Amino acid sequence: AVLLVDAVKGVQAQTLFNLEQAQKQGLKIIGAVNKIDLPQAKVEEIKKELADVLNVSAESILAISGKEGTNIDLLLKEIIEKVPAPSQLENADFKALVFDSKYDSFSGVIAYIRVFSGQIKKGEEAYLIATKTNLQVKEIGYFLPQLSEGSVLKAGEIGYIKTGIKEPLRVRVGDTLISSKVLTQGKQDLSSLALLAYQDPRQVLFLSLYTRDADQFPSLKDALLKLQLNDPALRFESESKLALGRGFRCGFLGALHGYF
User: What phi, psi does 257 have (nearest 5°)?
Assistant: First the structure.
């Protein structure tokens, strides 16, 4: 994992939280200070701060600028040299993690996936374990960084698939995608095949949203469904009040999440 720290703000609470999560999974950590192009950047000070957190020398922390591309070649080299290659289980059954998704009015839900084993091709049938949803892969490809169509995604690769699914709730971040062939192999407990890297976030802040115009209720629902595609922490359910009409009770991670 690459641990990025802002060259102005330095180590934050979320930095320590994400570091702890990565260490629990036994990941190799590469430290980098980003946004060194900003005039108020405190590069050497933040490098030392991050080095202390990682218990490494300040010289091993990379100073980069994602905006201007400064030292990005060194960061990529560091990733190649220090991060272990994924296990190439190409002969096993297909299994992938949905780590993000977006909605396209023409293609439906486009799922971003990381393939843990096996491979998948355009036209093949697949199955989402959590939502018990069958789908046919309409298109497959990579991020270059734009979506670039390919022919196959194999173990150790990330990419996208166009699912053709028009209901956003059927594709959840954190769900496990498997080959539909597994369904015919007599395995009853498909939940045992689910990848365990993801945990559902728990909502701690709740608020109600209502539209000024009752006719906008369907539009609000559609917007929340699409937002939920790449924000799995958002939960909502319909409610109604005599004075306000129909609306939604929404759950968030906290005050900052709810504000945005």
Answer: -60, -45
Answer with the residue of higher pLDDT: 213 or 149: 149
Greatest alpha-carbon span in the chain: 64
Tens digit of pLDDT for each residue in 109-127? 999 999 999 999 999 999 9
Give the C-alpha separation, 179 to 93, whole Å: 7
- Decide: 174 and 232 in contact? Cβ < 8 Å: yes
Buried b (16+ CB within 10 A) or exposed e, 123-139: ebebbbbbeebebebeb
Cis peptide before 232 (omega within 30 of 0): no
Residue position matching structure tokens 């802002």 = 6
Residue 184 reports pLDDT greater than 60 = yes
For residue 233, is pLDDT > 80?
no
Predicted TM-score (pTM) of the model is 0.70
Residues 54, 30: contact at Cβ < 8 Å? Answer: no
Instruction: Give the DSSP per-residue string, 80-117.
Output: HHHSPPPP--TTSPPEEEEEEEEEETTTEEEEEEEEEE
Specify the residue for token string 């922490």.
233
How far does CA 226 lie from the centroid of its chain?
15
- Contact present, 44 and 36 (Cβ < 8 Å): no
- Report residue 194's pLDDT band, with 50, 70 and 90 as the boundaries: confident
Compute the distance between CA of residue 98 and CA of residue 160 in angstroms, rounded to an integer: 9
* Phi, psi angle pair for 113, to nearest 5°: -130, 155
